[in-house]
Specification:
Blueprint (H helix, E strand, L loop, with lengths): L2 E2 H8 L2 E3 L5 E2 L1 E2 L9 E5 L5 H4 L6 E5 L11 E5 L2 H15 L5 E2 L4 E2 L4 E2 L4 E2 L4 E2 L4 E2 L4 E2 L4 E2 L4 E2 L4 E2 L4 E2 L4 E2 L4 E2 L4 E4 L4 E4 L2 E4 L5 E4 L4 E2 L4 E3 L5 E4 L4 E2 L4 E2 L4 E2 L4 E2 L4 E2 L4 E2 L4 E2 L4 E2 L4 E2 L4 E2 L4 E2 L8 E3 L4 E2 H11 L2 H24 L1
Parallel strand pairs: 4-5, 5-6, 6-7, 8-11, 9-12, 10-13, 11-14, 12-15, 13-16, 14-17, 15-18, 16-19, 17-20, 18-21, 19-24, 20-25, 21-26, 24-27, 25-28, 26-29, 27-30, 28-31, 29-32, 30-33, 31-34, 32-35, 33-36, 34-37, 35-38, 37-39
Antiparallel strand pairs: 1-3, 2-7, 22-23, 39-40
Length: 347
């Protein structure tokens, strides 16, 4: 499909700088733009590319002021990055969707499947499972007994959803994700460990996306809960009885220990680790590799391990490289002090 700059601007409530009739039929990165493609500029670090990109249309923020002529037609919008997401979603929604149940899939007779669903080859739908309307269950996915999946949810290949878990509407579970595996619960007895049965489940609310090979453990009792709008990257570990607040996002290799309560709109960089049984306030940001061992009671940004206030961490970082010289200077000072003491004692 082709769209003109004017059509795109009308769709995004934007304005056109340049040729409103120019057409595009694909997307490109700004540094790899080709004729007939649409790209965007949101990060000022990439501004130099806009003056030589071969893309036909560039989405820019309303306040963008070029320093020299731009060969492409500009579509000015309130937020270029968000507008790109809107366009990509529109294109994605326009793609034809798979439908029907493969004869090679196993669907329990007691399962209830909604309308316009797709269940691929060798997918497994357990007893008394409930699948909503317009769901896509790709090949080799496992949906356990008594599991509920809401409307418009996508379950990609090799996802495993254990029995009794609940998945909301408009969710996406990427390949290899595991929902409802046992939490890491073992009671020490002598030199061995006795397994504690994990009798709870996992509840995932609406509009959640779970990355590839991410694991969300079921609760010992009650539920592990992922609230509405949460986005989890690949290789994230959520332990038993954790609660993740609305619209919180976590980058890859983040690990959350058991019984942690995380607030709304928090942001986790890659490889962040949280100790168990702590509480995190709303709107807290954790830099990559932050190690958090105690509760965070107010909105802040934390860095380091153990994590501290970002400004304090930056000041400390400025000293780290000077520590060897400071150590040598302190050693010299100690030797001089000892010499002075000896001289004073002789007098």
């Amino acid at each position: 499909m082709e769209f003109t700059a004017q059509q795109i601007a009308d769709f995004l409530n934007g304005t056109v700088d340049g040729d409103p009739t120019i057409k595009v039929n694909t997307f490109s990165k700004i540094e790899e733009g080709i004729h007939g493609s649409l790209t965007f500029l949101a990060n000022p670090k990439y501004e130099h590319y806009i003056y030589r990109t071969k893309a036909s249309i560039v989405l820019v923020n309303n306040d963008f002021t070029p320093e020299s002529p731009v060969p492409a037609t500009l579509v000015r919008v309130a937020n270029a990055y968000a507008s790109l997401a809107t366009l990509l979603n529109a294109v994605e929604q326009a793609k034809p969707k798979k439908k029907g149940i493969s004869p090679a899939a196993f669907v329990s007779e007691s399962a209830r499947i909604g309308e316009e669903c797709y269940i691929g080859n060798f997918a497994y739908i357990g007893e008394n499972a409930r699948i909503g309307n317009n769901c896509l269950i790709y090949p080799y996915a496992y949906v356990g007994d008594y599991t509920n999946i809401g409307d418009n949810t996508i379950v990609y290949p090799h996802v495993s959803i254990y029995e009794g878990c609940r998945i909301g509407r408009n969710c996406i579970l990427h390949s290899g994700a595991v929902v409802g595996s046992d939490g890491f619960g073992f009671a020490p007895e002598g030199e061995s460990y006795n397994k504690i049965p994990q009798t709870g489940n996992v509840i995932i609310e609406d509009n959640v996306e779970i990355g590839a090979n991410t694991a969300i453990d079921r609760a010992v009792l009650g539920s592990t809960i992922i609230r509405e709008g949460v986005k989890l990257d690949n290789l994230v570990q959520i332990a038993h009885n954790v609660e993740v607040g609305e619209n919180t996002v976590m980058a890859a290799q983040t690990g959350i220990a058991g019984s942690v309560k995380i607030g709304r709109h928090c942001m986790f960089g890659g490889q962040v680790g949280l100790a168990g049984h702590i509480t995190i306030a709303d709107n807290v940001t954790f830099g990559a590799q932050a190690g958090v061992i105690s509760s965070v009671k107010e909105e802040t940004t934390l860095l380091g391990a153990p994590a501290i206030n970002a400004k304090s961490f930056m000041r400390s970082s400025a000293i780290f490289s000077r520590l060897p010289d400071m150590y040598r200077a302190m050693g010299q000072m100690q030797r001089e002090i000892e010499e002075l003491k000896k001289q004073i004692s002789k007098e």
